[in-house]
Amino acid sequence: MESVALESIQLGVHADSWEESIRIAAAPLVGRGSIDQTYVGRMVESVNRLGPYIAIMPGLALAHAAPGDGVMASDLSIARFDSDIEFHCDHDPVRIVMCLACTDSESHVARLQRIAEKLLDDGFLDSLMGAESPKAMYALLNG
Fold this sequence. Notes:
Helix content: 40-55%
Order of helices and strands: EHHEEEEHHH
Shape: globular
Number of strands: 5
Strand content: 15-25%
Number of helices: 5
Largest sheet: 5 strands, mixed
Low-confidence stretches: none
């Protein structure tokens, strides 16, 4: 999986809606200057327009939108929430939201593929759910 910076990992955060979960998961990328609020808004709008396609497997959503406005650098963040988030789809409830930002379509597809490969490893999602600290999650994601 692509490297995730330690400061882009949040554990035990709370969201009252799927929209808020995207904003919270994206906050470290905004703070790092990788994206701005335009891209955060585009991620939320994509789900409103296309449905909950970002809930890619039970328990996990991968928030992203097409490369373009609001993306200054390709980057990735992850947030594990303290309670279930409903995206109103078959993969509910979601507890982990990753946020992916890419500067171009080619790297966007390549990153999505690498993330999917890692997530398909048996037990990987359970390991993410059980990580006891941002450092432990960092080791899993960057290992």
